[in-house]
Amino acid sequence: MSVTGPAGFRAAGVAAGIKAAGARDLALVVNDGPQQSAAGVFTTNKVKAAPVLWSQQVLQERKLRAIVLNSGCANACTGPGGFQDTHATAEKVADVLGVGAIEVAVCSTGLIGERLPMDALLPGVDTAAQALDAGEQSGLDAATAVLTTDSKAKQAHRAHDAGWSIGGFAKGAGMLAPNMATMLSVITTDVAISGADLDEALRAATRVTFDRLDVDGGTSTNDTVLVMASGASGTEVAKEEFTVLLTEVCHDLVRQLQDDAEGATKTIDITVRGAVSEADAVTIGRVVAEDNLVKTAMFGSDPNWGRIAMALGRAQAEIDVDKVEIATNGVSLYADGATARDRSEADLSGRQIEIVIDLHLGEHTATILSTDLSHDYVEENSAYSS
Q1: What torsion, rounded to 10 degrees, do the Cα atoms 203, 204, 209, 212 define?
Q2: Per-residue pLDDT tens for 324-338?
Q3: Which of 182, 209, 221, 283 is catalytic?
Q4: Catalytic residue at 89?
């Protein structure tokens, strides 16, 4: 189960006709309360899509009754008209549900630069509202309706022994370098928690989960992670305890995003240890993750540590080359400024690859999740708009 796992939520995913192929392309998630606390994190890209700008505004109240999401069109770089389309979408959902538009968040994903087909989207809201249900299938339908180049829906759910739970779904396969979130994700919980505490918990969770995924260095114009709390379990939970379980759900979703990334034949975990600060560890891990020469070497199962050394040396972080140690899949290949073992001793033939870089300078560690750069990734993205 995902968003319909926690009590107090209904969801739907329908085919509104936004996608030419007729697949599900419009999702609706509704919080029936009694509480409507909400929080969100959004893209750090300066080019923000209209739905991001709208949702940032409405979340200033830290309260949501519903989230409407569409795939097939990002509604990004569409000017004032695009923002009007987002506003009209929220107004339509509000009218159907009998709530205020300021209580409705909007998310979009798909091709940048085109206006939403409102003649399909608005009637689709009616269809989705009629299909709302608290069942497991409805949660899956919603998770499916937000997919673009993803190959499958991504859902997660965790139940606490005290009778409350957290559930969620996410989508994203390319243009993944979130710096806060990734593409689109909706998370629900039935705990009783304030909007302020929910916001702090979400930011703490995404900082070490969604923010640590970097498939291709592309920070999307539409990145959004939203969380809603219904309070339907009647259970009040300490912010710290809630954050732990929320982080587990986010981590589960991020692992699924990593595994389903466009064209991926390898999943790569890059752990940087011994840094003088967490920021340095993240910076180095991200530079290595985004380096095309490293990514192509991993695609070829080639333990070419020289490319890793080159990449980390470009990072704006403190490094002492004579102290750096580089290991791949448990084999230390470079240490103390020279070759440590023959690269042939590292087996990278499997799907999972672990790169560990120990700077031996401090006590801070961070792990960046990434993938390789394959023929399929290039082919898929070379023809995306056509």
Answers
A1: 80
A2: 999 999 999 999 999
A3: 182
A4: no
